[in-house]
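JOB MANIFEST
job_type = single_chain_structure
chain_count = 1
residues = 244
[input]
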Amino acid sequence: MSVASEVVATQGGAATRGNVPGSHDDGPAPPVGAFPPPGVTLVVFDVVGTLVEPAPSVARIYRDTAAAHGVEREEEEIRRAFAAAWRRQEGVDAAAAPPHATSPQRERQRWEAIVADVFPGVAAAPRIFADLWEHFGRPAAWRALPRGEALVAASLAAGVDIALASNFDERLLSIAPRLAPLTAARHVFTSAELGWRKPAVAFFRAIEARLGRQPAELLLVGDDPLLDLAAARAAGWRVHGVVE
């Protein structure tokens, strides 16, 4: 997970739910039985909005965490503020030199800035951020999405390995081994560790170099029409869009 639709973003990396039909480089998304398409040697899954989502919602968790620090906000107010804050940080990353370069430090700072924007002028904002950062680093903060689970199962049934590639920070490395269906991945790539955020082509080139694969061998499964599908296609990968 576009932001103009439902935002599905978390302390562990943002993703947007575009609510658009599934897309594929050969036309409409094939049925699960035809997945993955011939020639693909590795299926690379986005994480948030594709395989898992926060449970309960981001707005609910932000509300409850803030309330624990004596800060009262309505969920709808938080949802709107979060969407605006997330867009603002996307703009910051796009304007960086080079664009979309990142690091573990930048990823943490990004989320600190988002929380500060959601709770402007609130003295407890740093403590709220610390609690949210810890919360979204727990496997229990997430639940699996059925469509993503089905595509993981179809990949493995076809004898094709899977990997994860996400704009999550390094916390994904500890979450993935403890949260199905992420547990099925043989490789886990995060923007913080690669040094690039999607949609940078360098994000995809770094993964290719790590895997020793050519772009045409790789299929990106994602839910965001821009950060996932258009970005991967621009890098020469094949793509498959998901919608719950």
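[summary]
Residues 18 and 204 are 21 Å apart (CA to CA).
The two ends are 12 Å apart (CA to CA).
exit_status = 0
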